[in-house]
Design goal:
This protein is 64% helix and 5% strand. By secondary structure, the protein is mostly helical. The chain has 2 domains: 60 residues, no CATH class; 32 residues. The radius of gyration is 24 Å and the shape is elongated.
């Protein structure tokens, strides 16, 4: 039995490692005919051309799978927490007057019994 380690992409024509090809379950875990890079480019172009359909599909997915979306968002936040804090601090420094006004409103509301 020969073990295939390389394959030629049908779109770009380059010979690449088998790792550079998707192997979806729908194809019986066999690698696709085009490499990951070419498939990403194709998907990106399709999303631009079919923006309305893409947005509707994304909306439907979020409605049908709220747990998966929440878990994905949580994981992203955990992995990028420092960036969130940096961006928040940067915004607060650039918008000091808005922050002061917001704090004033909060303190005024909190002090009312």
């Amino acid at each position: 039995m020969n073990i295939v380690t390389e394959k030629k992409c049908r779109k770009c024509g380059k010979i690449k490692s088998i790792i550079d090809f998707y192997a979806p379950k729908s194809l019986g875990n066999k690698p696709t005919n085009s490499c990951k890079e070419c498939q990403r480019q194709y998907a990106s172009q399709w999303n631009k051309i079919n923006k309305g359909r893409y947005n509707e599909n994304a909306r439907l997915f979020r409605r049908r799978h709220p747990d998966r979306v929440r878990d994905s968002n949580r994981e992203y936040y955990i992995n990028h927490q420092s960036e969130f804090h940096e961006n928040g601090n940067k915004w607060a420094n650039e918008n000091r007057e808005k922050v002061r006004e917001s704090n004033r409103k909060y303190k005024k509301k909190a002090s009312i019994p």
